[in-house]
Specification:
17 helices, about 575 residues, five-stranded mixed β-sheet
Length: about 575
């Protein structure tokens, strides 16, 4: 009977799922990740589950199913890779009886996935288990009881004056007493500098810019340099780049006066770990507990200045967002161009690179300035030339469009087909290598540990190849829809011919994005290239006799710019092997 049940598992992968939360430490070492892995590996080997892979969640509660290991396992199930899941017991899978019941009773059976909980004697291949729902309820009650005890202890500690949160930037935990904060001299100097600049009337963005220019490590980079682990965004490339929100948070932190403030945030229940802002009246404040970094009088002065500062409303044109916003991109760094209004002449609206190093502490060396009225006239001119070409020589227009799109589609289709063929051949090779490895293990030529390691490597590669094939096949479907896209593009041009004006809706129907280059030349001989990427067809080149006309604008006295709309022609692709 056992061999019949395991016969289907050879067709797919077996997931060995392990989970451990901080609260599980009270149950001893039996629930450790290493012990779970040993148990699952032994069970899989004894029962013929050869094609295995571990999915681990170390330090994650069972009441929340948004765990990285669990979500990766669900993703692989939906891809069709996993046919069996093995866990130590039901509590390792989860402690929310409703959600666990949904997965074990509905989700997994619908997808044909077998579920095994070793210690609870649950195996979906044996049919329904009457005791499983009761175990799920008991597991949730355990989580609820642990949460109640933790909250009670948390409340007692908070009301006694013990700090519940990590010390803010500027403080460290005392080596002698972890419940006390001591001043971190280096960071404290930066905090005092920030408050001093705020007293001088500098805004948060100005303070952040000054700290960046002075090469001051931002809080996360500073903690990392000291080897301190803190939660928060870790992916900031520039360790000296400060943001307004960091400065604002420091200026509002009352703890710098020497106070401890507990219960600033709370969670609604043990199932929902998201922290919510608590009303100020529910805070518990203990004053003058540790050494202050900022005098209380200075802190209160800064709070008055902050309360008097009003956020500036977003810049708009005639009460509306400019229709080219979110559509213009820097041709050099790829970042979006931001919309601005001239501070002196409110009638002048323009775009500039959001990554410009002088204005925004970015990395782009030039500003890529372009007037809003100029880009509108350039696009209008290009669309009118295209509409005129369609009206005067419809057959030639359609032929040119078809030739361009067919050339691009043919090149991309051949590339995707070659990619699918190579990935499929490698996938077949990996499957044969896996079979050979299994035979060698069965004959005793390779050890079990070596077999498990190599089998896992082969399976990972096979999964990656299948994902690559699926992505390429999806791209092929998009190429097949290019004919429909071409017809939609022609229809949008005809609509423009009828309206003879440009609206935000029509603009987005015709154009995907516009790349703006930096101006070249000086005085009245300046030029600026603009690359328009149309929807459905990307870039498009008009015949030379129709593309000659360009738009010239006097940006200021003695300075003119000629805008050169550039449609980058598709390069003739190198011949691809059949």
């Amino acid at each position: 009977m056992q061999s019949n049940k395991n016969q289907n598992t050879d067709q797919g992968m077996t997931a060995l799922y392990c989970r451990l939360s901080r609260d599980d430490g009270t149950e001893g070492d039996s629930n450790s990740i290493s012990n779970q892995k040993k148990m699952l590996k032994k069970y899989a080997k004894e029962h013929g589950f050869a094609n295995t892979r571990y999915y681990l969640d170390d330090g994650y509660t069972g009441t929340n199913f948004n765990r990285p290991g669990f979500q990766k396992m669900i993703e692989d199930i939906e891809m069709g890779y996993i046919k069996t899941i093995i866990v130590k017991d039901m509590s390792r899978f989860g402690r929310d009886y409703l959600t666990v019941g949904y997965y074990t009773d509905t989700y997994l059976p619908d997808l044909g996935v077998r579920f095994i909980a070793i210690n609870d004697c649950v195996d979906s291949a044996d049919g329904e288990n009457e005791l499983a729902p009761f175990r799920n309820v008991m597991n949730e009650m355990y989580a609820r009881d642990i949460s109640r005890k933790v909250r009670s202890a948390h409340r007692i500690r908070g009301n006694s004056g013990e700090p519940l949160a990590q010390p803010p930037y500027g403080y460290l935990k005392s080596p002698e007493n972890k419940k006390r904060w001591i001043v971190d001299p280096d960071a404290a100097a930066v905090v005092r500098h920030i408050f001093q600049m705020a007293l001088e009337g500098k805004g948060n963005d100005t303070i952040a810019r000054i700290l960046h220019e002075e090469k001051v490590l931002n809080p996360m980079a500073y903690w990392n340099s000291k080897g301190l682990k803190r939660g928060g965004k870790q992916s900031q490339k520039d360790p000296y780049k400060w943001v307004m929100t960091s400065v604002e948070k420091i200026l509002k932190q009352q703890e710098y006066c020497g106070d401890i403030i507990n219960f600033k945030t709370y969670s609604k229940s043990f199932k929902n770990k998201r922290r919510l802002e608590n009303d100020r009246e529910n805070w518990v404040i203990f004053k003058n507990v540790h050494e202050p970094i900022i005098e209380r009088e200075i802190f209160e002065q800064v709070q008055k200045l902050i309360s008097q500062t009003k956020r500036r409303a977003p810049k708009k044109e005639n009460g509306e967002k400019n229709m080219f916003s979110e559509m213009l991109y820097c041709a050099d760094c790829g970042k979006k161009l931001w919309y601005h209004t001239n501070t002196i002449n409110k009638e002048i609206h323009f775009f500039s690179c959001s990554n410009y190093k002088k204005d925004y502490r970015g990395s782009c060396p030039t500003r890529h300035y372009i007037r809003a009225d100029a880009i509108e006239q350039v696009v209008l001119l290009e669309l009118r030339k295209m509409a005129g070409f369609l009206q005067d020589e419809e057959d030639a227009f359609i032929d040119l469009l078809t030739e361009k799109s067919n050339r691009d589609v043919l090149f991309e289709t051949k590339r995707l087909q070659r990619e699918i063929r190579r990935a499929s051949e490698r996938c077949e090779t990996v499957s044969k290598l896996h079979e050979k490895l299994y035979e060698d293990n069965a004959c005793g030529k390779v050890s079990d540990d070596w077999y498990m390691e190599q089998a896992h490597r082969y399976e990972v590669e096979r999964m990656e190849l299948k994902a690559k094939i699926a992505a390429a096949q999806e791209e092929l479907k998009k190429q097949e829809s290019m004919q429909i896209g071409r017809e939609n593009f022609v229809g949008a041009i005809r609509k423009f011919m009828e309206m003879q004006t440009l609206t935000p809706v029509l603009l987005r129907e015709l154009i995907d994005r516009i790349e703006v280059h930096e101006t070249e030349g000086v005085g009245k001989n300046r030029t600026q290239r603009i690359v328009i990427h149309y929807r459905f067809i990307d870039t498009f080149s008009l015949p030379e006799e129709r593309a000659k006309e360009t738009y010239v604008a006097d940006t200021r006295q003695g300075v003119a710019v000629e805008y050169l709309p550039v449609a980058v022609p598709a390069q003739q692709p190198a011949p691809l092997p059949a």
